[in-house]
Amino acid sequence: MSLPHPTTEQITLANVLGALGDPTRLAIIAQLARDEATPMRCGQFWDLGSKTNISYHLAKLREAGVVRTETVGTSRLISLRREDLDKLFPGLLDSIIASAADLPLAAVVLED
Amino acid sequence: MSLPHPTTEQITLANVLGALGDPTRLAIIAQLARDEATPMRCGQFWDLGSKTNISYHLAKLREAGVVRTETVGTSRLISLRREDLDKLFPGLLDSIIASAADLPLAAVVLED
DNA sequence: TCAATAGTTCAATAACCTTTGAACTAAGGA
DNA sequence: TCCTTAGTTCAAAGGTTATTGAACTATTGA
């Protein structure tokens, strides 16, 4: 069960922006940004779409270098690649997170 | 010959990021950013692709609200929607432009 | 008026994206 | 060992994107 990640040098601006150009994936990173110190499990995003669908979107984010996915037991722990992104594209992640926090879909995970 | 632009309120983060998630379009905005006070003509981007192709990419940027296109005689004058974008997504455009300036494709227009 | 210039629109094609359910794998607990 | 939990992978369908050349429109200058 391999989870391929791009190296820092393999991350491109076009790929990162392309990956974030989707409401579901913006909602995912908005959630991750709420507490960056604590990685989240896949299951915590199931309000945003089906199990399969979330798996697909998380793979997109991982392949673009936006998130890192670690395997822990039967779970995956997902976190922002904050250091890599800040180094490559200073200020980008912060400005996106600030704007994404207000998005309607970002509220879905918090509801209940 | 209508050139529809979204209003400020119609511009979404996902659409803007999606529009910028492409090397050709990043190169276009990198060029526009080199001298924001001076709008550019379509023809100045023909090094980046065919006439038809550039027309397509410029339409994408316009529809996402990233650029404004004005008709002047038989030309189009294209400029960044700096004020709208800065108001909606503070810091976003600057961080993207700073990173896009170093991109290989951005150099193509300057060559000769 | 006629031709050149600047750019758009159309149709076609190939490639990629999104979404789904069903089948799969791998770890942990009873 | 067997079942449950957590998530991935597969195949299929339908939609969108990117690219091209040919045909088109609109403005300008001769």
Weakly predicted, low-confidence segments of chain A: none
Tally of helical segments of chain A: 6
Q: Biggest sheet of chain A: strands side by side, in what order? A: 1-3-2
Estimate the helix proportion of chain A, in percent: 40-55%
Give the structural class of chain A: alpha+beta
What is the CA–CA distance across the termini of chain A?
34 Å
| CATH class category label of chain A | Mainly Alpha
Name the pair of protein chains with the most residues at their interface, and give those residue counts: A-B, 24 and 24 residues
Protein name (chains A, B): Transcriptional regulator
GO molecular function (chains A, B): DNA binding; DNA-binding transcription factor activity
Keywords (chains A, B): DNA-binding, Transcription, Transcription regulation
Organism (chains A, B): Pseudaminobacter soli
Describe this structure in words.
With 112 residues, chain A is an alpha+beta fold. The first copy, chain A, has one domain (8-106): Arc Repressor Mutant, subunit A (Orthogonal Bundle). Chain A is built from six helices and three strands, in the order H-H-E-H-E-E-H-H-H. Chain A has helices at residues 13-20, 23-34, 51-64, 82-88, 92-100, 104-108; strands spanning 40-41, 67-72, 75-80. A three-stranded antiparallel β-sheet of chain A has the order 1-3-2. In chain A, strand 2 (67-72) and strand 3 form a beta hairpin. Chain A starts with 12 loop residues before the first helix and ends with a helix. The mean pLDDT of chain A is 93. At the A-B interface, helix 1 and helix 5 of A face helix 1 and helix 5 of B. The structure holds a DNA duplex (30 and 30 nucleotides).
